[in-house]
Fold this sequence. Notes:
Elongation Factor Tu (Ef-tu), domain 3, 27% helix, 28% strand, disordered C terminus
Amino acid sequence: MTVSLATRPLGLDPANDLLPVRDRGALRFITCGSVDDGKSTLIGRLLHDSIGLLEDQVAGLASDSRRFGTTGEDLDLALLLDGLEAEREQGITIDVAYRFFSTARRAFIVADTPGHAQYTRNMATGASTAELAILLVDARKGLLEQTRRHAAIVSLLGIRHVVLAVNKIDLVDFSRDGFEAIVADFHAFAAPLGFRSVVAVPVSARFGDNVTIRSRNTPWYEGPTLIRHLEQVQTTGEDAAAPFRMAVQWVNRASLDFRGFAGTIASGRVAVGDPVVVAASGRASRVRRIVTQDGDLAAAEAARAVTLTLSDEVDISRGDLLADPRQRPATARRLAADLVWMDEKAGRAGDRYLLKIGSATVPATVTRLVDRLDVASLARLPAPQGFELNAIGRAEIETASRIAFDPYSDNRETGGFILVDRATHLTVAAGMIVESLDRAREVHRHPTEVTPAARAGLKGQSPLVVWLTGLPGSGKSTIANLVERRLVAFGRHTALLDGDNLRQGLNADLGFDAAARSENVRRVGEVAKLMTEAGLIVLVALVSPFRADRDRVAAQFGGGQFLEIFVDASPDTCRERDPKGLYARAEAGSIAHFTGRAQAYEPPLDPALVLRSDVVTAEDAAEQVVELILARSEAALTSLDASQL
């Protein structure tokens, strides 16, 4: 981190502000800080002094100043930003206010964000797309907890350029010592935050000192005015230097002869002839054309919206991430991420959401709350029972299918995501991926030439997973064996995964506590997935007591390929049967974690079929399953695209 108290003197000649500056893109920045530090007033001053106001705007502002203002007879420039009636009445910022303005040297998009702790989520929203943050500090108060909170969020959200605006410097008699003390305090606090640059400026937003014109009241300050620094700071080029990434937003089939993949380049550069890979599937090709509304391009860089056509027929759909095959993103189902919690309802381990990253949306579960961030000390404290509104903390998340990403510290566009409530569709958290939790992090999927659809076509059937769950002794294995025998008699290609058999080999290292049972279900689900890709009808007979584990497996299968069947028998019936003597041993205390006794069983909420095995015979139950499988398999097979077979 570099802290600049002074740079080359810029002089007082206003003509200097008219000098053209090339290669400066529009700057997106936010203002943040504690309550009443003067954020809205500062932006109002920037607007007033940079672009001026029309006569009717001045008249309206004068009227509002008399009604809501806090500056006596002067214009209250904060009212240019406080657009909500509640904001004007309370004299605070509640929502994020965006304003656009420009000087002769640069265009700006500024977000005025709330200072109150209860609106931290709004501040995070404004910071998510910003390149620079103006962090205001009241010269009379110094650094406050909310100042530290905003600095921490700014860092988490990947903003690497900060202006420390020490405001209301007029109220401390333009004290150099006071200014430098605040700068030193901030330097000590922010050292671990990884800012690339911090420029400190003493300002009076109300009177304009060092905002757009150098103040004669601070002769000891030789640095730039605020507007001059904003015009000069270089934040572009970082995305262009990163590896190529583009999330596919739309598959464009303009005609029978055209198939393009539309999206905005998140980072890097791509040119005609460059190799690209679909991160999730590993399938590679080369760029044939780069199509835009203004015609074809030879090359395109970050932030450009394009449609790419490829040299090969590659299976790509919305949500896929195209990347440089020599610098691939990570792909994983388990990841660690920092979360800024935005929902009134606390987030807890085990809660399920939709995770939206780029143009992809997948089911996800928060599996563990790791810790929470103390914004005053930047210390990581023990994890709470839940993340409350505006909390910041680290969590472990598991997605239903593999997602492609870069760590947020490397790429904000491909490392940021949101969690969405499945029922209300409200955003509950903003997330920044820290790392993959998969051990094989450098392993990428290798594409195969024979597709799962081709394998299914050779077998003349649609692959399917039939997952029989229920208490021990409910009859799962008996029914599954009968079902497989009948399917084979019909000429179907099947595989049977029985829980007890798998624990003789693949899962012999697992116990029966909750964590081991979850891993048992995960492994069986992965094997079942591989078998469906081989075109098989897979029968699974597994207690699988926890609903969340079964749901995670089901989420891996699309297009109705997963049938959950509840083999329902009362605990008394299962105990009477006790075909393996398990209930007796559990009651004698020789079996720990026995489902139905020491461990709860969570029945399915919406199974495809319920088999009352204490009412119907195993043969009749098997017949119901076979009928369901054949009906589902035939319907799915007829819908297969013949070109895929």
